[in-house]
Each structure stands twice: as C-alpha cells, then as structure tokens.
Amino acid sequence: MIRAEEFTFQYPTQDTTALDRLSFKVDEGEVLGVVGPVEAGKTTLAMALASFAPQNTGGSTDGTLTIAGRDPREATDNQVAMVFEDYSAQLTQVRVIDEVIAPLVNRGIPRREAIKRARELLDDVRLDGIEETKFSWELSGGQQQRLAIAAALAIDPDVMIFDTATDMLDPAGQDEVANLIASLKGDKTLVVTDNDPDALVGIADKLLVLNDSEQAAFGPADDLLRDADLLENIGVAPPVCVRIAREVGLSKSPLTPGEFLDALDTDTSSNQSEPVGHVRGADAEEADMTSSDFGKSLLSTDGIGHDGEVEGETVSDLGDPLLRAEDVRYEYGSNAVAVEDVAFSVRGGEVHAIIGGNGAGKTTFSKLLVGLFKPDDGTMLVDGKSTDGRTARDIAESVGITLQNPDEQLSEQTVEKEIRFPLEKRRYERTGFLGLSKRERYDEAFIEERVAEVCDLVGLSEDIMQEDPMFLPRGVRRQVTVATALAPDPDVLVLDEPVAGVDGTARRHMTRAIERLRQQGKGVVVIDHDMDFVCEVADTVTVLHEGQVAMQGPTHEVFGPDNWEWLSSHHMRPPRAARLARRVGIEALTADEFVAAFVPQLEVSG
Predict the structure, then answer these.
(1) Can you give the pTM of this predicted structure?
(2) What is the mean pLDDT of the chain?
(3) Which residues form the ABC transporter domain (predicted)?
(4) Which of 363, 398, 476, 588 is most exposed, with minimal Cβ within 10 Å?
C-alpha cells in the first residue's frame, strides 16, 4: 500500500534534506509506527504521505514515495486523511458539529444522514457531552485534538495518518485512540508517529526509526521496540517495561507487564540458588542498587520526596504559600462555570501537579494563577497579596507561565530574542520622584549569561538561537517558552503541558530543570496529562473534575492502589511503572522507585 524507495525531501529554505533516502514498505491494513527525536523528520514524512509536502510547502523530492502505486499528490480526496500535530490548524469550521459534518457532506452524504453520523463520530472520541453548536475555539486543547480526529475519521480514508495525535489527550482519551487504531487495523492502512514508543506497543506492525532526517532502522515493531540501545542512542526513551527490565537485570526485553512476569519467571527458574529479585527490606539503605540517571534525584534526600517531605518536614512546613487560591470561581460568558470553589496552594520548594480529564478546567485555572484571568468570586493570592487590582505584568514579576499552546506566547523573530525579551522588558526600573528616573537592573553581560544558562537547563542548542521559533518543531517551541519563562527567575513557575510533543532527551532536561527549581526553593505548578511525568516530578497533586477539586494530596496518596478505580472513572490512570509494580507485588510509582524496591540478583553459583 505504501512504498518508499530512496525517498528524499528538502524544504525550499533549507540547505539540508528533511528526509534522506528513506526506503520502507507497508502492506494494506498494517500499522506503521514512526519514532525519532524532535526534528528527525516524522512530521515531514507524514506531510509527504498526505501530499502537503511539497504540494503546499514547496521543496524538492528525489526517489519515490507511493500510495497504492501512485504519487500521494495524485491521491483522491478521500484516499488519505491526516490528524496534524498542530491540530488546531486543521479546524476550519466555526461550530463543533460542523467540523465533522463538512467532510461527510463533501463525500456526498445527505445532510440528515451526515448529522447522524457526525454525532456518532463525536461519541467515538468522547465529545458527545459537548454542546454541538459550541464554537470550536472554546474547546480545551485536548477536546480540539479529539475533534480533529473525528473530522479525519469522517473522510473514511484508505490511509489514515496520526501525527503525534494524542499528546494533548487525557489518559482515557489516549487509551480510546489506541483502541480506535486497533479497531481500524486490517480495514485501513495507518501511519502513527509518536515521541513515546510505549504508545506504539501492541499497536504497530512495523516500525520506522528516524534520526537526523535519516532512516536509523526499519522492521517488525516488536523487535525494534525492544532495542533499548537503538532508541536511547538517538534520544528516544525505550518503553517502560524494557527500561526497567534492563535496570533490574532481566535477560529479555519485555514490552508488557505480562511479558515482564514471564521473563522474570524464566530468569528465576534458571537461577535456582538466588531469586532474580526481591522486595527491599529494612536493610534497603545499605543494599547496593543499579539505577539509571533518569530521575535519580527524585529519590534523593536532598530534595522533597514524593511523600511531600524534605529532611523530615512535610510540605506544609516549608513556609507560607507563594501562591494560593481560596474558593476561586470563574465563569465563561453567562453561567458557563469553568472553575468553581477551587482551593489550592504551592510553597517554595514544592512541585504541585494539577491533573484531570480534557475540559476539567486545568488551563483556565492556570491562567487564574498568573492573573491572565481574574476570578469572579474567591481570592487569588501571590506572595500573600490578592491579585485584585494587580496587572498581569505586575504578577509576572513573581509568577511565570508557559501556556498549553506555545504559539500563543511566541512573538520574536529569533529564539535568542524570544528568551531575551522578558529580561529586556525588566532591564530598567523606575526610580526617583514619580518614577521619572530609571536604573539599570540587568547589564548585557548578565542577560547573555542568563540566556545561556536557561538554554542549557532546558536543552536548547546554540545552533537554533538565530532560528525563527515559529518554524521549529512544536516540541522545541515548547522548550523555548519554558526557557523564556525561566529567564527572569520567577518565584513560581506554572508549566502547562511542559513535555507534550518533546522527545526523551528534552523530557530529561525538563525533569532536571524542575528539580533545580525545587532545590532553589521555587514553587512549581505542573499541569499535565502524562501521569508518568507527574509522578516523576510532583510532591503533591490536585485532581480537577468539571472545574472542581475532586481529590488533593501527596502524590503517593493520590496514586495509591486504593484510588485506581476512582482515577479511572475520572479519565486518569496510574503511571506505567506503578501498573507493572502491582503485577510484580511491590509498591512504586516511577521506574526509579521500581528499581529501588526490586534489587537484581543474577549471580549464578558455580
């Protein structure tokens, strides 16, 4: 169905190729998974398959790329459909229902039947509870992503392309899309690009691994997903089960908890003199362990642990809150309540996560925290002072934010100018009578040093400093906004979906940056759908549901086994490492905690 032979593509404004001599074949009804670090060429390949590159982007090609024996540019209107990484860019209709009706009507389906089918598709992507006549731009980011998927399904294509199409979905939504892809297997040919290999386990038949525009590997998905060295060498984190199995010394590379248990049984039976692993006992602190550097600091007594403690103190002992919400209520328009009676606080040295399903009110609440929205009722306090009567610029002196959509924050022509911008705005402060004089706060040397420091912290290369940020991959644009928010050194940083669309390397940098802020006594608020990441970095958690606080407490408490059923009913799920740990019979939320509780003993007597 899909065949590439030495396929090469180069954008018109670039000196190097975006895709270089790709060769692969996908049969009808198969699922091709595509992984690779940011800027590897995943989105460019997706656009080439959907005929957008070079038809809309311009550029030149060499070699061949065909779908059913034809150039993608010759495909019929309903042969290929694509869900974009930048999902909002493909929403063209004003109202939700019309976004799905339009492609159905374009296929010649009578309007009455199209309306019925559109409602079924909205139900398939869990948008059935949304008012049909609601404006598309009023939806949350995750809801917009669901809408884009429903509209693509309405085309009923032979080939469907999902380009990082689940990074803004809540965990339940990610599972639903995975189930949807599984249901389409065999009937349609699917291409699924993702930064998270775990998302392709059990889904992809074949895997294409890209790195620096080139083909690093192509073959059976299960084989390549087990190759931890291959993935890590290009900056992609291996599946959680694979990573943990290697850390605890299993001889095989399992992809699922079931395979992990089988591998554990096999290794245990072949080492009768010593069990492969055991749960740590009272002597745990004295026992040797091997652990990856990934998140190691999160288990260190130098910082706050996941039980909300720091050197014997609870989070509440860290001092007065830097940021506090007291029974906050906010409405969109007339009686459309987005946030209601929310109470929340974050102290210096605390990382607090806000989680919840799509449309739960998380992003709205984040904008209330930094003064972009003002509460209709209740009180928001920054450094103990109400935000009433204070401008967003004034609040920004203490609280920084990165928005869910990084494009809403980017305004400068180069990455360097973007990161310098908040420092330049604060470079001088007013002094003297009526503020008629000004004094320099930051000199040029300080600004240059600070820009370099935050770029290193979030993993931005010097090579992109003169690039236009709007032309960078979405994950890199997100890193730019985080660096920009860090530059003025705020007391509190609010991060809305900080690891959505980033690769494994950038994710590790983000973990390191948050740990650095914690050690510096800063307050950090993380809003995310990635439960693995939340449990890696957060000390405390608030669960929002329909704009209200549904649960609040230390991370280990919220994600404790007794709450798993409740979390599932609220579109959440425990992290992957926790699910594996439960199967094995230990308690852990993260890969590092698993390794710390499960000590490999692979010595064979004789």
Answers:
(1) 0.85
(2) 87
(3) 2-237, 323-571
(4) 398
